[in-house]
Design brief:
The complex is a heterodimer. Chain A has twelve helices and 15 strands. By secondary structure, chain A is α/β, with parallel strands linked by helices. By secondary structure, chain B is an all-alpha fold. In chain B, helix 2 packs across helix 6, helix 4 packs parallel to helix 7 and helix 7 runs antiparallel to helix 10. The two termini of chain B are 27 Å apart. The chains are: A alpha/beta, B mainly alpha.
């Protein structure tokens, strides 16, 4: 099967900063592929190049079989994009935004209304279609953008931080829509996120990216297996970590704040042995390895979910509508 | 076909935004009206130029001024659209940059011409009679002026990253264009240095043409005014398509 997206040493250099450093990925059709990494890792830059917004400094890529350098128009016709920053026109209604988009993307007149109704239905905005977007909540805007991205039946959908700054309930809704797309619409999805649970929940494969480079790429399950077991967090009176290293099932010992963090094979079976070594404990927590642990084990850093982004945008929007 | 439709959709977006932000119309009409009735009316109570009341004399100049201001300032919206990322949606669509420029220019010209029509209605209040042919010529002159100046505003807008920067550059440009256009004074008795400056200001030819067709006062033959304006529009339009091609 042909790859929906394939990159060849895709690189973007901004002055001294290499935002994306020789990216090589092959994304199969109908796959949901995630770029996971902290802010500034180069995720948005990578997507921008694939969407033909930014020109790579070096290397190239194909999207839906078209070269991003030589066939940008064909690439643009094949893709849908949901940008990280809101990009719907708030002085227009939801339906008007969709209608303009349909005309820009050459959706034939005869099926335009039908398509618009269909995507409005899909994201649950039909009852608010005639309201101005400035009266929408953040979640509704996001859903409208998703509807817009799907309107012209793209072969490949790019989602840049699709649930950034949304409440858990809205996020869950959006995840549900996204999950169904590859099968129902025969779509390939590439998304960026710094939310581990989002990547874990949605993606067939994940590339963990840091400082423009892919550190590791695999299915979420296999990535978590590379950590080498479950995570056991202990709080004991004695901050001595050496004694745990002698236990066979423990593959890694770390101190974090007041906690001793152990990576343990089959933690549920081996817990007694650990507790015996630990002696008197104040608390213990066992959890399966997460993608954050994967990221941590490869980079020594954590991916910190940040909140409150988009504040600037909202401020600008207010200034604009009042000025 | 799809290209025409894309341009139509771009225009439609500008038009809808314009009709929803009525404050845009009100504020852009307000200043020229003040000029005509306060400055023109005040000075007109004491001053005549060539036997024409001063208020009537500056009316064609203020017509040009209303188009000048609204057209160049139209460029500010593209700076805002980029700042809040609305522009990205358009830039990434399968539309050529030329189509985007044409759509924006048509949108801006529509805004300016709607204001120009309102300003043309004021001729009744001033007792300026416009024959149908004079009216058509005035509309043509105003349209050429709008076309060149909307293009100018969009060129500046495509280069600027902040609305503040845009406003600063535009203030430096718009006021000289207005003051040197002879909108407020006759051109025939000017000192040489001032005359030279008025002759290189393209807006001068718009003011002169409008004066010719509305009140019958002229410095240049009408065909010269039309030719200069058409040339100016062609140059700015071409530069605009190039500027949009290179816009990030």
């Amino acid at each position: 099967m042909e790859n929906a997206i394939e990159t060849f040493d895709l690189t973007k250099q901004f002055k001294d900063l290499t935002a994306v450093d020789r990216l090589n990925v092959k994304i199969k059709q109908s796959e949901i592929f995630g770029l996971l990494g902290p802010n500034g890792a180069g995720k948005t830059t990578a997507i921008s190049m694939l969407c033909t917004i930014l020109r790579p400094t070096q290397g190239t890529a194909t999207v839906n079989g078209y070269d991003i350098l030589n066939e940008p128009d064909d690439v643009r016709k094949s893709i849908g994009i949901v940008f990280q920053q809101p990009s719907v026109d708030d002085i227009l209604t939801g339906r008007e935004n969709l209608r303009l988009h349909a005309m820009w993307y050459g959706v034939p007149k005869e099926i335009r209304d039908e398509r618009i109704n269909e995507v409005l239905e899909l994201v649950g905005l039909k009852s608010r279609q005639h309201s101005l977007v400035k009266t929408y909540s953040g979640g509704m805007r996001r859903r409208l953008e998703l509807a817009r991205g799907l309107l012209h039946l793209p072969k490949v959908l790019f989602l840049d931080e699709p649930t950034l700054g949304l409440d858990p309930q809205t996020r869950e809704h959006i995840w549900e829509y996204i999950e169904d797309l590859p099968e129902k619409r025969d779509m390939t999805i590439m998304l960026t996120t710094h939310y581990m649970e989002e990547a874990d929940r949605l993606c067939d494969r994940i590339a963990i990216i840091d400082q423009g480079k892919i550190i590791v790429m695999d299915t979420p399950e296999r990535l978590k297996q590379t950590v080498g077991g479950d995570i056991v967090c202990l709080k004991t009176g004695i901050a001595d970590t050496e004694r745990f290293r002698k236990i066979d099932s423990v593959s890694k010992v770390e101190m974090k704040d007041d906690y001793i963090v152990l990576t343990v094979r089959n933690a549920s079976e081996n817990l007694q042995q650990i507790l015996d070594v630990a002696g008197k404990i104040e608390s213990v927590e066992i959890r399966p390895a997460s993608l954050n642990d994967v990221f941590l084990s490869y980079t020594g850093k954590e991916i910190r979910p940040e909140t409150g982004e988009g504040g600037i945008v909202q401020r600008i929007m207010r200034e604009r509508t009042s000025g | 076909m799809s290209r025409i439709e894309g341009i139509y959709a771009l225009w439609l977006r500008e038009f809808k935004v314009f009709t929803r932000e009525r404050s845009r119309v009100v504020t852009s009409i307000f200043t020229p009206i003040l000029w005509i009735f306060v400055f023109g009316g005040g000075l007109g109570s004491a001053v005549e130029i060539g036997g024409i009341n001063y208020q009537v004399f500056i009316y064609p100049g203020i017509l040009a001024m209303s188009v000048l201001f609204s057209s160049v300032f139209f460029g500010t919206y593209i700076v805002w659209d980029r700042k809040i990322d609305i522009l990205k949606e358009v830039l990434v669509a399968p539309l050529s940059r030329t189509s985007i420029f044409v759509g924006k220019v048509l949108g801006g010209c529509t805004d300016s011409m709607i204001q120009a029509f309102i300003m043309l209605l004021i001729s009744f209040a001033l007792g300026v009679y416009l024959s149908p042919s004079a009216l058509l010529l005035a509309i043509l002159l105003l349209f050429l002026l709008a076309l060149s100046l909307v293009s100018t505003g969009l060129i500046i807008g495509s280069l600027m990253e902040s609305p503040e920067g845009f406003n600063m550059i535009v203030s430096f440009l718009v006021f000289p264009l207005f003051l040197f256009s002879g909108a407020l004074f006759p051109l025939d008795k000017l000192p040489l240095w001032l005359r030279a400056l008025t002759y290189i200001d393209p807006v001068t030819y718009g003011v002169d043409g409008l004066r010719t067709v509305t009140i019958g006062v002229s410095q240049f033959p009408l065909y010269v005014d039309l030719a200069v304006l058409a040339g100016f529009a062609a140059v700015m339009f071409t530069v605009g398509t190039i500027a949009f091609e290179h816009m990030k």
